[in-house]
Specification:
Layout (H helix, E strand, L loop, with lengths): L1 H17 L13 H18 L2
């Protein structure tokens, strides 16, 4: 499951580099790092919450 999520996030980041989404905080191509940071936070939270 985590591998699928990682591939989807990478596709999301590549798509944002091609055409920015225009969401608040994601209006420029240079904001792609924010997607990666959110992904890293979500992965860390998942690891902490796993039994």
């Amino acid at each position: 499951m985590m591998k699928i999520l990682a591939v989807l996030i990478i596709l999301l980041m590549v798509t944002h580099l091609i055409r920015p989404f225009g969401l608040p905080g994601l209006k420029r191509r240079a904001d792609v790092w924010k997607i990666g940071l959110a992904f890293a936070f979500a992965m860390g939270l998942t690891v902490l919450l796993r039994p």
